[in-house]
Structure formats: C-alpha cells, structure tokens
Amino acid sequence: MKPTWRKSSYSSDAGGSCVEVANLIRTHARVAVRDSKLPSGPALALPPEAFTAFVTYVRT
Question: How many domains does the chain have?
C-alpha cells in the first residue's frame, strides 16, 4: 500500500519550499517527510515523537 502524501498548509503551488508528510503505518507508526518538488526522491521516516519535536522546533 502506497502512502498518502499531504502537502503542508504553509506550502504554495507557486514553487519554493514545499514539504509533504505521510503516515507509514506498516513501518511501525512512522511519519514520512519529503520535498514535494522531488516526489521520487528520498524521504525521512521519523518516529511520531521525533516528528512532533521537529514541528515544534520549526514553529518556534
């Protein structure tokens, strides 16, 4: 089953910085993060706690 990627609400369709996330249930509850401009490129697979820490850091 392929992950369902969601673009960040802070990303625009005009290019620039675009981030997408997907929940990876099959990989023991990981959150994947990738650059939407490179959908076939690499993705980070983070434990939920690390993803939460990342989002908290980015917001501040």
Answer: 1
